[in-house]
Known about the structure:
There is one protein chain. The protein is an all-alpha fold. The protein has helices spanning 3-23, 25-33, 40-59, 70-88, 90-96, 100-111, 127-150, 159-166, 171-174, 178-203, 207-218, 236-249, 253-260, 266-269, 271-294, 299-314, 329-338, 354-372, 389-415, 420-432, 453-467, 471-474, 479-482; strands at 381-382, 385-386. The chain has a two-stranded antiparallel sheet. The longest helix has 27 residues, at 389-415. The radius of gyration is 22 Å and the shape is globular. The termini are close together.
Amino acid sequence: MALPTLRIIGFIIGIFLITLAIAMVVPMATLLIFNRTADMPSFLWSSMITFICGLALVGQGRPEHVHLRPRDMYLLTVSSWVVVCIFAALPFLLTQHISYTDSFFESMSGITATGSTVLSGLDSMSPGILIWRSLLHWLGGIGFIGMAVAILPLLRIGGMRLFQTESSDRSEKVMPRSHMVAKFIVLVYVGITVLGSLAFWWAGMSLFDAINHSMSAISTGGFSTSDLSLAKWPQPAVHWVAIVVMILGSLPFTLYVATLRGHRQALFRDQQVQGFIGLLLVTWLVMGVWYWATTDLPWYDALRHVALNVTSVVTTTGFALGDYSLWGNFALMLFFYLGFIGGCSGSTAGGVKVFRFQVAYILLKANLHQLIHPRAVLKQKYNGHRLDDEIVRSILTFSFFFTITICLIALLLSLLGLDWMTALTGAASTVSGVGPGLGETIGPAGNFSTLPDAAKWILSVGMLLGRLEIITVLVLCIPAFWRH
Length: 484
């Protein structure tokens, strides 16, 4: 790869690092407000180190008359995510006095909005660290939306390529310039965060807890300010607010923009959104009836517990209302399956994404029909538009490598001595971005702190692969990519 191209990539990463350093002012201000200045030097040093390194990259200047090609965007995406995680880990390292492995794991989990954690004692933890964890979620969430809109379509396998070409929102007509799309997406993202914070506050949380949980919910991250997660707040209103904000974070942000631009039915007419909401409602109903019939809870309370936990798993957020892994084998298996689904394309949610399951169903239905009528000419459509071979091939490719990645990571974890449930659900939850796995060790009531360091590094790679939709990282492994 040419040196000028690397200089441009370094220049952009430098801007990211300077932005990250400025973001560290937020936890420092929080420490001043709470009069907990003992951790102030740690954040100050972290900010200075990050800023100086960013300034060193920016100081080299941007080469004139050199522009990034689409293939260069893949390297920029992966390298920027990794470098930002490296420096975002510094506050954890300096304030919590944990190993760099644990610090990087927490940082990667935050930036990728996964929600897996190695920290405990959150109820008495420094407010600076708590707001930093939530802020990493928030920054990673808006960063992923931008990547989904601008970069993943270049790979011809990202969800937004299908979404933009097949969706009813007609993005190219609603918003012709990409910078306008980005501006409106940021406004929507900030607006939902503010409204979510006010709603959590109204529902019974303190303002600090409300801001943290709003940033965590809209980014579908899952970091909480309590070891009990949302179970600390018994108010039903808190739980329903969390459900609404998680759902809002899992819907396509380009459709929010389309709605604001006058296409008022764009969001609700979209087949992906309809499928996602329908899946949630049916799962709430079926599992709510089962949970109500197998416990002593009233129907409303059983539905609330099911709705929050199901929504949290499907949207890959990771909040928990009690330890749902203790609900029995049926619930255990169902939650494991739900963790693969994810939200909509162009949202902050991880997972396989709803539209891929919908397209797979369309293909299955067409193939079965073809068996009955071999000479029939079938037009496969999604959202009223034709599914071409390129889109079908890209979905099959992603699904294959998504499955292989989880299997490989689970196998590596088992080689390190982890039991099969911890290995399999740990691999699935990190690649899908759910956060907590299943079982006593990494379940909703546990965390990842007791895992070997090697396992944490493997799972960190899994978080990165899952968040960047696998192929974005794998394309860098092709020798042809590095040829001039």
